[in-house]
Amino acid sequence: PRSTLFPYTTLFRSVRPAGDYAITTERSGVTIGIQPVEDLKDQKTYFDTELTPKGFIPVFIVIHNGSSGTSFLFDQTNIGYAGVANSGVPNLGVSKVQENILKRAVKSRTLSPGTSVSGFVYIPVPKKGPREKIHLQVPITKAGTSETFVLNLFL
């Protein structure tokens, strides 16, 4: 039997710089790049299931702090989605698929200068029919302050 982690590690084993992804934005030295995984065959390969028919699009996200001396806080629970219902991790029950989905989700962390974080966000979409354009809003907070800015991406 094949490993359910092998296809994932093949595609995302070597994370590219955030600015190299199809959809990117930058502010105050923080760069975000995203890559939606919308092809159902790719979803089946990487997640052992098709997520779009279950109401989600997996989006690989890379956040890089390219500043020279400022740390930033990224809290994945604050990611917003304009034009869609609240986000979350698909709940597919207790299974190996659910375990892999949770392991691959992007995690909250402090980004020191020169560091990155990567993983998946799962964006709710209609189970059938075309989806609307999605406005992804990623708030970033300057460490030690209440100064927050939002990076916006459209997919």
List keywords for this structure.
3 helices, four-stranded antiparallel beta sheet, 155 residues, disordered N terminus, 9 strands, alpha+beta, globular, five-stranded antiparallel beta sheet
Residue-averaged pLDDT: 84
Strand content: 35-45%
Which stretches are poorly predicted, pLDDT < 50 over at least 5 residues? 1-10
The helix/strand order is HEEHEEEHEEEE
Percent helix range: 10-25%
Number of strands: 9
First CA to last CA: what distance?
35 Å
Shape: globular
Whole-number radius of gyration? 16 Å
Helix/strand structural class: alpha+beta
Structural overview:
The chain is of the alpha+beta class. It is 15% helix and 35% strand. The strands form two sheets. Strands 4, 5, 6, 8 and 9 form a five-stranded antiparallel beta sheet that branches. The chain has a four-stranded antiparallel beta sheet with strand order 1-2-3-7, with no helix packed on it. Strand 8 and strand 9 form a beta hairpin. 22% of the residues are buried. The N terminus is likely disordered.
Helix and strand topology:
Blueprint: H1 6-12, E1 23-27, E2 30-36, H2 40-47, E3 56-65, E4 72-74, E5 80-82, H3 96-104, E6 109-111, E7 116-124, E8 135-142, E9 148-154
Antiparallel strand pairs: 1-2, 2-3, 3-7, 4-6, 4-8, 5-8, 8-9
In short:
The protein is of the alpha+beta class. The chain has helices at residues 6-12, 40-47, 96-104; strands at 23-27, 30-36, 56-65, 72-74, 80-82, 109-111, 116-124, 135-142, 148-154.
